[in-house]
Specification:
It comes from Hyella patelloides LEGE 07179. Belongs to the thioesterase family. Its EC number is 3.1.2.-. There is one protein chain. The protein has helices at residues 39-42, 69-80, 95-109, 140-149, 155-158, 161-179, 231-234, 236-267, and strands spanning 21-26, 47-51, 88-93, 117-121, 193-198, 220-225. By secondary structure, it is α/β, with parallel strands linked by helices. Strand 1 (21-26), helix 1 and strand 2 form a beta-alpha-beta unit. The chain is globular, with a radius of gyration of 19 Å. The protein starts with 20 loop residues before the first strand and ends with a helix.
């Protein structure tokens, strides 16, 4: 069982003795593992949720955050390697979706098993060119204005200048991770990819979610919810219900495969 004093990458972990699938969750830029703290209660007992806390965030506030994706991916892979001895899925929101995607590709290169599902949320497909101005280099007032446009800053944070001054460097580091990213074509993943998005999210317009289809030879599906870039908060009940449904289907499929395999082995005895 993970312990945050042993593995600081895993926070708010709630063990489930009946679980047979692990879900690793990656937050958006500036986000903390805490945003996933109640997901375990909303998902089936067969799903164990592993909220990922990146350096510099949440309970790891004093650590230096990553500013580039490749070393971050390698560090995450090393941190969760002991937990990949069971089937697992990856979920990421916004910059977290990019982390989850590149983590899946990195693990494949290391001859580790692919996830049984990759869930990407509020993020354009990685092969699409990003023509936006680099947010991580904007002056504070312009960066805050852009975040307000995305409805990404709670009002209580805006009203606390000291908190904003502490948070903005962490946010800039996360934005740099995504904005300095260079997509390198590889063979598509074989696991299913499910893309989630908010109907009013300006960051995923012009088919940005749909083109995740190119990144898998497996099944692809897209689900939209009422809300903006942060629909996973505003549409939380409906979103988690859909996520639970997909994961439950995966568990049932795997159980049927085991049952069929056992039946074939038993029949071979006669």
């Amino acid at each position: 069982m993970p312990n945050s004093t042993i593995n600081p990458w895993i926070q708010f972990y709630q063990p489930k003795p009946q679980a047979n699938l692990r879900l690793f969750c990656f937050p958006y830029a500036g986000g903390k593992a805490q945003i996933f703290r109640t997901w375990s209660e909303a998902l089936p007992d067969q799903i164990e949720v592993y909220p990922i806390e990146l350096p510099g965030h949440g309970r790891r506030w004093g650590e230096t955050p990553f500013k580039q994706l490749p070393p971050l991916i390698e560090a995450v892979a090393n941190a969760i390697a002991p937990l990949l001895n069971r089937p697992y899925a990856l979920f990421g929101h916004s910059i977290g979706a990019l982390i989850a995607f590149e983590l899946a590709r990195f693990l494949r290169q290391q001859n580790a098993s692919e996830p049984v599902h990759l869930f990407v949320s509020s993020r354009r497909a990685p092969q699409l060119q990003n023509s936006d101005t680099h947010s991580h280099t904007l002056p504070d007032d312009e960066l805050i204005r852009k975040l307000c446009w995305l409805k990404g800053i709670p009002q209580n944070a805006l009203d606390d200048p000291e908190l904003m001054q502490l948070w903005l460097p962490i946010l800039r580091a996360d934005l740099a991770v995504g904005e300095t990213y260079t997509y390198v074509p590889q063979m598509p993943l074989s696991c299913p990819i499910i893309a989630f998005g908010g109907r009013q999210d300006p960051a995923i317009r012009r088919g940005g979610l749909r083109q995740w289809r190119e990144q898998t030879t497996g099944r692809f599906a897209k689900h939209l919810f009422r809300g903006n870039h942060f629909f996973l908060h505003s549409a939380r009940p409906r979103f988690l219900k859909q996520l639970a449904r997909v994961l439950q289907e995966e568990i049932s499929i795997r159980a049927n495969r085991r049952s069929d395999s056992n039946g074939t082995e038993n029949n071979a005895l006669y």
